[in-house]
Design a protein that fits this description.
The complex is a heterodimer of chains A (284) and B (312). Chain A is an alpha/beta fold and 284 residues long. Helix content of chain A is 36%, strand content 10%.
C-alpha cells in the first residue's frame, strides 16, 4: 500500500539529507524539522495546490509554518520541488542569503515569516476568512508545534475559526511530544488534545504523521465536516529518521561537526549508528 | 459626516476595505449592516484580530481595525510589530479612547505610551487629530496610503475650523515670537485657550497642531524653534517617547538648541475621573497651561468643556 507513495518517500529522504547538512556550521532545529518532514512533503508535493507556477496566484492553496523551527524541512522540500535551487541550501545562515533559523518571505514558497509562536493561526485565519468572503475554494493549512499550543492565541484562533465556520482552514499539529527542553506532558500537559480541540468546535482527526497513506486518507476527507475548522493531530517523532537523536529532549537545536553529520547521513541510510559527541543541548 | 459614515462610504466605494473590531463597536455600530461579510468582529481577541488583519492584507485587503487603544497598542503590540510591521502591510489601526479620553476607566485603560510604542515600529505612521473635523480631514489620506498606520481616534467636537490636511504636515494655526505651543489630539482645544490667554497677557504666541507624529513635520518644528524664544510641548502621553522626545530628536538631528517646557505625564499614570476633572486635576486646562507658562495667575475665565460620551 505504501509503495504508491514511493515518490514522496524519496523526496522526504532527500529532504532529511538536506536537514542533516543544515545541522552543521551553525546548526538548526533538527528535531522539529525531522518530525515535520513527512507532513511538509506530503502537503507541498501532493495535497496542496502549490507549485512553482502559482506562488502568486490568489487561487493557490496556502501553507503556513507557525512553529517556524521546522523551516529546514520546508527549505529542503522547496529545493527538491525545484522552487529554490538545491545549491542555495548551501547558503544556510549565510549573510549573503535569507535562509536562516526561522521562515521568511524572501525565500520563494514561504507565505509568511514566523518564529514568535502563536501568530500564524491568526494570520491563516485572516486568509481563510478572505477566501470565504470572496467565495474561493482554496485551502489554508497552518502547521503548529505541540509546544506552541501553550500560547493562548492558538486557542483564540480556534474560537474565532469556529465562530466564522472556517472549514477551509486546516490546523495540523506536529505532535512530536516535545517542547524546547522537555516532554510536553512533563511540563504543560496537552492530552487529551483531540478533546480540547473538539470542545472548541473543531472537527479532529488523529493519525501517524509519518505515514503517507494515513495522511492521504485523512486529508482526502477534507473538509472533515462542513462549517467546522479541520484539525489534524499528526503523531510524530522528534528527530524522525535518526535513531541516535529520536525522541530525545536534548536534541532540539543541534550544531554538529561535519564529521557527525557525515555519520548521521550514514545512519539515515541505515549504514551504522552515529557516535555524537557535540554538546547535546544548545538553547536558542 | 462622522467617523462611521466616512468609513462606511470609503469601504462601500472600495472593495479592498475590511472593517474589523475586537468587540469594540462604539464607532462602527451600523457597519455590519452596511458591509455584511466585510465587517469582521473577532470578539475580545486583540492579538488574533491583528494577526487576521495581516492575513487579510496578504490577500490584498486594507483592514481598518478597532479596539480600545490600550489593548490595540499594548496587548497586541507584538502582533502589530511582528505581523504588520515586519512585512509593512497596510493595516490601519483605529485606537479608541487614547490618552485622557479614557477618563474614568483607570490605569488599565490609559494609553499614554501608545505613540512611543507605535512610532518605534519601522514604517508605521502615527497620527493624532485634534477633533472630529480634523480626524475626518486626515483619514482619507491615512487610509489610502499603503503604509501601516495608527490613529489616535478623537471624535470630540471643537469650534475650530481646520485647514485641509497635507500628509505628514502639521497645521500651523498661528506663529509667535515669544512662545510656540506644540500639541496634538484633544489637548489642541486647551492649547487654543492657552494661546488666547497668553495673547491677552501680551505675548506673541504660535500654535501648532502636529496632526502627524510620524512622519513628523520637521520643518514646522525647526521654524518654531528658530522663531520663538520658548517652545511648549503639550501631550496626554508619558514624557518618554512622545512629542517632547520627537522634538528633542529633531532639534538634536539639526543641531538646534531651544528652550523647551514639556507638559506631559512624568513617570506616572493620571488620576481617573470624568474628563473635565482629569484635565483640571492634572493641570492640563488651557488656563492652567497658560498660567504655568506665565508664572502667575490671571483673571482669565476658564472655558468649560463637555464630558466624554463613552464609558468602556
Amino acid at each position: 500500500m505504501e509503495s504508491q507513495y514511493q515518490h514522496l518517500k524519496d523526496i522526504a529522504f532527500k529532504v532529511r539529507e538536506h536537514i542533516i547538512r543544515m545541522s552543521a556550521n551553525g546548526g538548526c532545529f533538527i528535531g522539529a524539522s525531522l518530525s515535520a518532514t513527512d507532513l511538509i512533503v506530503f502537503l507541498y508535493a501532493d495535497f496542496l495546490n502549490l507549485n512553482i507556477n502559482n506562488l502568486d496566484d490568489p487561487n493557490r492553496d496556502y501553507l503556513f509554518l507557525s512553529k517556524g523551527h521546522d523551516v529546514p524541512a520546508l527549505y529542503g522540500t522547496l529545493a527538491e520541488l525545484g522552487i529554490i535551487s538545491r545549491e542555495r541550501l548551501q547558503n544556510h545562515l549565510s549573510i549573503d542569503d535569507h535562509i536562516y533559523w526561522h521562515p521568511n518571505t524572501k525565500v520563494a514558497g514561504i507565505e509568511f515569516h514566523s518564529g514568535s509562536l502563536g501568530h500564524l493561526p491568526s494570520v491563516a485565519l485572516g486568509v481563510a476568512i478572505d477566501i470565504k468572503v470572496r467565495g474561493g475554494n482554496n485551502k489554508v493549512v497552518c502547521i503548529l508545534g505541540d509546544g506552541e499550543l501553550n500560547e493562548g492565541t492558538c486557542w483564540e484562533a480556534v474560537l474565532v475559526a469556529n465562530a466564522y465556520r472556517l472549514d477551509n482552514l486546516i490546523f495540523i499539529v506536529d505532535r512530536n511530544q516535545f517542547q524546547a527542553n522537555m516532554a510536553t506532558e512533563d511540563l504543560i500537559p496537552l492530552e487529551p488534545l483531540a478533546d480540547k480541540f473538539r470542545a472548541f468546535g473543531a472537527e479532529v482527526k488523529r493519525i501517524d504523521g509519518h505515514s503517507f497513506s494515513a495522511l492521504d486518507e485523512a486529508l482526502s476527507q477534507y473538509p472533515f465536516c462542513e462549517g467546522k475548522l479541520n484539525v489534524l493531530i499528526a503523531d510524530t517523532l522528534r528527530g524522525k529518521g535518526l535513531p541516535s537523536i529520536e525522541s530525545r529532549a536534548d536534541r532540539w537545536f543541534c550544531n554538529f561537526t561535519t564529521e557527525e553529520t557525515e555519520q548521521l547521513l550514514q545512519e539515515l541510510h541505515g549504514e551504522h549508528h552515529a557516535q555524537l559527541t557535540s554538546q547535546t543541548l544548545v538553547v536558542r | 459626516m462622522n467617523y462611521e459614515q466616512l468609513l462606511t462610504q470609503t469601504a462601500l466605494e472600495d472593495e479592498r476595505y475590511i472593517v474589523m473590531t475586537a468587540e469594540n463597536r462604539a464607532l462602527v455600530r451600523n457597519i455590519p449592516a452596511a458591509l455584511g461579510q466585510r465587517f469582521i468582529d473577532t470578539g475580545i481577541t486583540e492579538q488574533t484580530m491583528i494577526g487576521a488583519a495581516a492575513g487579510l492584507a496578504l490577500r490584498g485587503r486594507t483592514p481598518v481595525v478597532h479596539a480600545l487603544t490600550a489593548f490595540l497598542t499594548m496587548r497586541a503590540f507584538e502582533f502589530v510589530r511582528t505581523d504588520v510591521g515586519i512585512p509593512g502591510l497596510p493595516v490601519k489601526l483605529s485606537g479608541f479612547i487614547p490618552g485622557f479620553l479614557s477618563d474614568a476607566n483607570g490605569p488599565t485603560h490609559q494609553a499614554i505610551e501608545d505613540i512611543a510604542l507605535m512610532r518605534g515600529i519601522p514604517n508605521m505612521e502615527v497620527f493624532a487629530p485634534a477633533d472630529e473635523e480634523d480626524l475626518l480631514l486626515m483619514l482619507p489620506a491615512i487610509w489610502s496610503s499603503s503604509a501601516p498606520s495608527y490613529v489616535r481616534i478623537n471624535t470630540r467636537p471643537t469650534h475650530y475650523h481646520h485647514a485641509p490636511y497635507e500628509p505628514g504636515k502639521a497645521e500651523i494655526v498661528s506663529q509667535g515670537e515669544d512662545i510656540t505651543l506644540l500639541c496634538y489630539g484633544l489637548l489642541f482645544d486647551q492649547c487654543l485657550q492657552a494661546a488666547t490667554i497668553l495673547q491677552a497677557e501680551g505675548k506673541s504666541v504660535g500654535l501648532i497642531n502636529m496632526r502627524s507624529l510620524k512622519p513628523v513635520d520637521e520643518k514646522a518644528l525647526i521654524e518654531a524653534a528658530q522663531h520663538s524664544k520658548l517652545l511648549i510641548t503639550v501631550e496626554d502621553h508619558f514624557l518618554t517617547g512622545g512629542l517632547y522626545s520627537i522634538l528633542a530628536e529633531t532639534l538634536l538631528k539639526h543641531r538646534i538648541t531651544a528652550n523647551v517646557i514639556p507638559f506631559a505625564l512624568k513617570e506616572r499614570w493620571f488620576k481617573p475621573a470624568l474628563l473635565p476633572d482629569v484635565l483640571q486635576y492634572e493641570g492640563f486646562t488651557g488656563k492652567q497651561i497658560a498660567e504655568e507658562i506665565l508664572g502667575y495667575p490671571t483673571g482669565q475665565q476658564a472655558v468649560q468643556m463637555t464630558p466624554s460620551e463613552f464609558a468602556e
